[in-house]
Specification:
395 residues; mainly alpha; 14 helices
Length: 395
């Protein structure tokens, strides 16, 4: 089940303005809670949101379930990592502007530190032939996890033939090299037009989006500024599952710029799965592989900065969106196209992950476990590590 589909867009209330009066000690309470959640937050966005509900509704009583659902619904209206934005929003509601910053940084920082250490170890030892190559067992599991997420999201989002067509078209466009931003914007415009087709006259339709159908930017040497701009762009426009991030990274950093290999991207995904906190800290790992600690810092700031801005502006955005059905339809198109992008990157990465009968069997078994049980995906990744180690030792 998609964490974005819990409440519909129409369920978002107008109660998204300034937070209530800040109580003494609230900022410290926010800091302690979200650092803790950043440390123990395994399992991805859906698990993060469940943990936050347990803490702020059941245990602490900051807000009730209805208000919590409103905040979850509000995060559906803006791009970026949902669970991180929910943490930022809850911090804002509890402790004002400073709470917004403290909650977001507290939730993100533990994962950034852990991923940064792993990225350094990977860069220094990952290609050494004497080091056990654990990817053999991990990568098929990652493929299964992404496939299962795609299956769950598809069941929630593809509720009409039109949505299925949009997702299929997005998949085809991605595989033929069309830029992700073009795919997302085109899907949003088409869905908005289709939703409002009875109110629009033919002469009002335009080809305004055609200038965006340009070829992707040509390859360029490594640049921290370029890296920051690429990640800032992704953080500003990415709708859908955190796994859709992979499509953007694949196209921008692997295909267009050549700063990463597909194998490195798969390793980044694996690190994101075995560490707590936001999946978007994958950007920390890839930034380190591109330009060390400076690259990791630049990529991390770039990918997360838009979320802080969007949440701060959410009080104005939500009423505006609720009053405009066309804007809601546009966002529906973005989310639907995100499924196509996710399917496209899954197709590309499967070739790198499935190398023989055993890796295919691992992927199938992991997918069966995910479908048949509620096991935390981190346990499956741990099993993949064990299989990879056993394979190397046996060989």
């Amino acid at each position: 089940m998609s964490w974005r589909s819990s409440p519909s867009l129409g369920a978002v209330s107008d109660d998204s303005g300034p937070p209530p009066t800040v109580s003494p000690g609230a900022l410290g309470e926010v800091a302690r809670l979200f650092v803790k959640l950043g440390v123990i937050g395994f399992g991805g966005p859906a698990a993060h949101i469940a943990m936050m509900r347990d803490e702020v509704v059941r245990r602490r009583g900051w807000i009730d379930d209805a208000e919590f659902l409103d905040l979850v619904g509000a995060t559906n209206l803006i791009p970026g990592p949902n669970s991180t934005e929910l943490a930022i929003h809850l911090g804002h509601r509890r402790a004002g502007g400073r709470g917004l910053l403290v909650a977001g940084i507290g939730f993100i920082a533990p994962a950034v530190v852990i991923v940064g250490v792993l990225a350094w170890l990977y860069q220094r030892y990952g290609t050494d032939p004497t080091v056990v190559d654990l990817r053999y067992g991990i990568l098929p599991v990652i493929i299964a996890i992404v496939g299962h997420a795609l299956y769950g999201l598809g069941r929630s989002a593809l509720t009409s033939i039109f949505n299925a067509v949009i997702a299929g078209a997005a998949l085809a466009a991605y595989l033929t090299g069309v830029h992700e931003l073009v795919v997302l914007v085109a899907a949003g415009v088409l869905t908005a037009l289709w939703t409002n087709r009875r109110r629009l006259r033919p002469q009002r339709l335009s080809l305004a989006m055609m200038p965006f159908l340009a070829e992707p930017t040509t390859a360029a040497p490594v640049s921290l500024w370029r890296l920051f701009v690429v990640l800032l762009e992704i953080g500003s426009v990415l709708y859908g599952s955190g796994y859709v991030l992979l499509a953007f990274l694949q196209r921008n950093l692997v295909d267009d710029l050549g700063w990463l290999t597909s194998e490195q991207l798969l390793d980044a995904i694996a690190v994101g799965q075995i560490t707590p906190g936001p999946v978007f800290t994958t950007a920390t790992f890839v930034g380190w592989q591109i330009d060390g600690a400076a690259g990791a810092a630049v990529a991390t700031v770039g990918i997360f900065a838009p979320s802080f801005v969007f949440v701060a502006l959410l009080g104005r955005i939500v009423p505006w969106m609720r009053a405009r059905p066309t804007a809601k339809a546009f966002l529906t198109g973005l989310t639907t196209a995100s499924l196509g992008l996710m399917a496209g990157v899954l197709v590309q990465l499967t070739g790198a992950a499935i190398s023989d009968i055993l890796t295919a069997a691992i992927a199938v078994a992991a997918l069966a476990v995910l479908i048949g049980t509620k096991v935390n995906s981190a346990w499956l990744v741990a099993a993949g590590v064990a299989i990879g180690a056993a394979h190397v030792l046996w060989a």
